[in-house]
Amino acid sequence: MLRVLTAALAIASGVIVLLGYFLRQTFPILEQLRLLLTDWAIVIAGAAVLVGILNLVSVQMEKLRSRQPGGLYGALLVFALVITFGLGLVLGTDHIFLRTAMEAVIVPVEASLLAILAITLVYASIRLLRRRTDLMSVIFLAAFLIFLVASMPKPFGPIPFVDQLILDVMATLSTSGARGLLIGVALGTLLTALRVLFGIDRPYGGN
Amino acid sequence: MIALLILILAAVLLLVLTLLRRRSPAVFRKIEAYERLNHAIGLSVEGGTRLHISLGRGNLFTARGGSALAALAMLRRLTERASLSDQQPIVTSGDASLALLSQDTLQSGYRAARAEDQYRLTAGRLTGLTPFAFAAGTLPVIRDEDVSANIVIGELGAEAALLTDASESKTADLIAASDNLTAQAILYAASQQPLIGEELFAAGAYLGAGASHEASLQTQDILRWLVILAILSGAVLKFLGVNF
């Protein structure tokens, strides 16, 4: 019974939001309902963040309890989380301590990951032909190298006509390709949404 | 108005094709990545190893939510099939709502496989709320949890490279797809069998999720042909000097 009710509620909400978007001028009430439902959803999503953080804490504590690898890092994470959360509640998020914590811890850590990412990407490109030796991989790598050479600064300055020609051709090809991919993704998204709307897929645990 | 018409057309096609597909299942072209995924599920069940499914960090309130919903549909099917394994699958996400839905979906999958007692709430995890925090939280799962295959499907950015690299260093299978163009380029270079563009949304049909998923894929194909036709017609009309 509960499953039928959740499905009915989800489908009804989806239909109202969709109709509110398309028929907002003809039926202003639908637009008001759409905004109301969206507001409720945003509040629920905010609460979901807290539930998600509790989930993160319970996973890390379980790691520590069962002496899994990285359990100590988990304990450190939970400790830092509790301290930061507590101070955030007491002092407010604009306090100098919390801003310093952000700038001195999170920004450098993310910057370090970005640096690792750059090396990882170069390594992945080098290994591409070892992983897959087919025509598309060769074209992918060749396009990447040509684009890199055309766009990089050179000691003698840009090569007249050639650099710009390469960049123009690449821009046209990549824009067309990207649009093709995005149209495909948009159609996929549309059909996925319709399946949820018809109750065929029930990601809220109803099937 | 055009958007509404496309929506109605897609809905009608989906319903009609679902009814048709119930009578005669569709035959699809071979996609290597999904062949590999089916193989990886079998190996995980036989070898008693774990599947790691990462749903990315697609926010359900944005247009990126589509890939997250497709990933959840795939997760439902994967859970059902992998429920026989000694080690239950782990699901990681970078969005709180998505993490909650992944827990619900895992539970539904176990329930459908009549193995609900195997479900653990900690199998669906939120690993971080920013792109790099998500990646940093997901890396230990790939590295330390006896994972034999990583299935990374959903909205990701450049941080996808860190996940693919970790998977490769553990010589685990990797099946990855994203709706994000940056991530697609990275995954093309870094995974053994990349899934390009809308192939992400075909997961359900290729994992045997039923007639509606097959119909959905066919509807996508029909709509794609209509888009191609519209683009070509527009180009011809423009060439002939017809303004519209």
Explain this structure.
The complex is a heterodimer of chains A (207) and B (244). Chain A has 6 helices and no strands. By secondary structure, chain A is mainly α. The termini of chain A are close together. Chain B has a 5-stranded parallel β-sheet, sandwiched between helices. Chain B has 2 domains: 29-206, 3-Layer(aba) Sandwich (Rossmann fold), CATH 3.40.50; 210-244. Chain B is an alpha/beta fold. In chain B, strand 1 (50-56), helix 3 and strand 2 form a beta-alpha-beta unit. At the A-B interface, helix 2, helix 4 and helix 6 of A face helix 1, helix 3, helix 4, strand 3 and helix 5 of B.
In brief:
The complex is a heterodimer of chains A (207) and B (244). By secondary structure, chain A is mostly helical. Chain A has six helices and no strands.
- Judged by helices, strands and strand pairing, the structural class of chain B is alpha/beta
Our estimate of the beta-strand percent of chain A is under 5%
Mean pLDDT of chain B: 89
The CATH class of the largest domain in chain B is identified as: Alpha Beta
Helical residue percent band of chain B: 55-70%
Percent of residues in helices of chain A comes to over 70%
Number of helices of chain A: 6
Listing every helix as H and every strand as E from the N terminus to the C terminus, the arrangement of chain A reads: HHHHHH
What is the residue-mean pLDDT of chain A, rounded to a whole number?
87
The largest sheet of chain B, given as strand count, sense and whether it forms a barrel, is: 5 strands, parallel
Q: What is the subunit organization of this protein?
A: heterodimer
Structural class call of chain A reads: mainly alpha
Whole-number count of domains of chain B: 2
CATH topology of the largest domain in chain B: Rossmann fold
- Adjacency order of strands in the biggest sheet of chain B: 3-2-1-4-5
CATH architecture descriptor of the largest domain in chain B: 3-Layer(aba) Sandwich
Largest sheet of chain A: none
Give Rg of chain A in angstroms: 26 Å
Q: Which pair of chains has the greatest number of interface residues, and how are they split between the two chains? A: A-B, 62 and 75 residues
β-strand amount of chain B: 5-15%
- The ordered H/E elements of chain B are HHEHEHEHEHEHHH
